[in-house]
Design a protein that fits this description.
Urease, subunit C, domain 1; five-stranded parallel beta sheet; 29% helix; 23% strand; TIM Barrel; alpha/beta
Length: 353
């Protein structure tokens, strides 16, 4: 049976006319019609006074690491590799030793809960796709087809090459790159290109050390950038310059894990907005349509016919939902739906039936 959502302010992409009060018809987990009248006998949800956002897409997380406390051992690093070298020995000390002993399923659950509470319905894991993340009923949904390498520092060059070549052209290949402000970070794009691993499906994570010429070269190949500003500021004291990637539609936003980031994807939106580099409408694209295109999940990130019915609700109908998104926190989200099914209900609010 189809479901008819009536009267909500639906936050559509600017390319589709932008936010508007309209109706949606859902069937078998997808949006099948927009701006239509209800059919006799179908289930109707009256959403007058509500705003309906498309499910957000988190383009970078380490889902099994979100139970760790935010950690660093000096005020600022020249390169995240320095932080990594300092952190790894600490894994055998408290509190990290005890935290590592938690079952993998529980560690992954913490990361998934962080995301679903912040309106994320699709998330990219930058680590192995652990068994607890492979289940179809997982909320949010975890990208299943991807290739990855950690970085040019912690992954041998031949392994980076092998993983890139094993990644299908229609799946993303993700790697931490230029996560620093030193000469090492500045030289990493050239090294990646020399390995033959800079392609149209390559997604660079962080990119703080990319020069203007590096950005031009990356854009020529069609590769994209995932921006994690709060993590960058915490470790490096600065973040990437992203305007060119945003203009090209090849910029996505990632929350990173709580080891170094502010918290969730809504926190990351605030950190990104605080840099004053791109507009709220452009930021909206980094967590919806542009992220979907980069991660090769083109049926997500918008509430349009043919797209998967992933969305979340808040009370009220703001005059500028793009700008309003920047100020939201998990407590504002009433419920989250994936494939037309409710997967999360905030206990502070009465369910919408």
């Amino acid at each position: 049976m189809s479901v008819f959502l009536d009267g909500a302010l639906v936050v559509l992409p600017q390319s589709a006319g932008g936010p508007q009060i309209t109706s949606l018809r859902l069937f078998r987990g997808r949006v099948i019609a927009l701006g239509v009248s209800p059919h006799r006998g179908e289930k109707i949800l009256d959403l007058q006074g509500f705003t309906l956002y498309p499910g957000l897409i988190n383009a970078h997380d380490h889902l099994e690491l979100n139970h760790f406390p935010r950690t660093k051992f000096q005020e600022r690093y020249d390169n995240a590799h320095q932080w990594g070298e300092a952190f790894l020995p600490k894994l055998n000390e408290e509190p990290f030793c005890s935290l590592r002993a938690l079952p993998l399923r529980e560690r992954c659950r913490v990361g998934l809960l962080k995301n679903i509470r912040s309106g994320v319905t699709t998330v990219a894991q930058h680590n192995p796709l652990h068994r607890p993340l492979r289940q179809r009923c997982t909320a949010p949904q975890v990208i299943g087809r991807y290739g990855w390498a950690h970085s040019l520092h912690f992954t041998p060059p031949e392994t980076v090459q092998a993983h890139f070549r094993q990644t299908p052209p229609n799946a993303p290949f993700m790697i931490h790159l230029a996560e620093g402000t030193d000469e090492v970070a500045a030289g990493e794009l050239s090294r990646l290109q020399a390995l033959g691993c800079l392609g149209s499906n390559t997604i660079l994570i962080h990119g703080v050390g990319l020069s203007r010429d590096d950005q031009v070269q990356t854009l020529k190949t069609g590769a994209g950038l995932v921006w994690c500003p709060s993590s960058n500021h915490f470790l490096l004291g600065q973040t990437a310059h992203v305007e060119a990637f945003s203009a090209a539609g090849t910029l996505a936003l990632g929350s990173d894990s709580r080891l170094t980031a502010d918290g969730d994807l809504l926190d990351e939106l605030r950190a990104a907005h605080a840099t004053a580099q791109i507009s709220p409408a452009a930021l909206f694209k980094t967590v919806t349509t542009d992220a979907a295109r980069m991660l090769r999940v083109p049926d997500r990130g918008a509430l349009l016919p043919g797209y998967r019915a992933d969305f979340w609700l808040i009370a009220g109908q703001p005059t500028d939902p793009y700008r309003n998104l920047i100020d939201l926190c998990p407590e504002d989200i009433q419920s989250v739906w994936i494939g037309g099914q409710k997967v999360y209900q905030n206990r502070a609010y009465s369910p919408v039936h």
